[in-house]
Amino acid sequence: MRLAWSRETSHAPAFAAGSSPALAADAGGVWDEDRFHWWKVFRTLWWGIGMARQGRQHLDGTFRSIIMAASGRRVAELEWDALCLIEGR
After folding, report:
1. Burial of 58 (0-12, 13-18, 19+ CB in 10 A)
2. Which of 69, 47, 70 is nearest to 59 (CA)?
3. Which range is least confidently modeled, 11-20, 27-36, 75-84?
4. Can you tell me whether residue 20 is helix, strand or coil?
5. Angstrom distance (rounded) from CA 48 to CA 74
6. How far apart are CA 14 and CA 71, in angstroms?
7. E strand residue ranges, 1-89
8. Measured between alpha carbons, how far apart are the two ends of the chain, in Å?
9. pLDDT (average), residues 58-82
């Protein structure tokens, strides 16, 4: 699995996973595509909330950092990913 830091070179979702057969082998041969989809939606939302918190900390002065500011600007990307995952079902 991978998490992309930047979309400047690609329009792929920030979260991408390997093929289901490869992941099933890693999971001991047991695979449930619906559960995995739920997990992808949940983790995408979780990651977006974390990025929003980091952006808020930069803006309110709790933790002033260009990294925190950059994290905050990525929230819209995670919102888009979540909507695409939900719409895909």
Report:
1. buried
2. 69
3. 11-20
4. helix
5. 8
6. 13
7. 2-3, 15-16
8. 21
9. 95
Answer whether 55's CB lies under 8 Å from 69's CB.
Answer: yes
Per the model's pLDDT, the better-predicted residue between 71 and 4 turns out to be 71
Alpha-carbon distance 78 to 53, whole Å? 13
Q: Which of 48-53's residues contact partners 24+ apart within 8 Å by CB, and which partners? A: 48/75, 48/78, 48/79, 48/81, 48/82, 51/75, 51/78
Average pLDDT over residues 6-28: 62
C-alpha R_g of the chain: 15
Give the residue from 31, 45, 52, 32 showing the smallest Cα distance to 86. Answer: 45
What phi, psi does 41 have (nearest 5°)?
A: -65, -50
Cβ proximity of 19 and 33 under 8 Å? no
pLDDT at 82: 94
**What are the residue ranges spanned by the domains of the chain?**
51-89
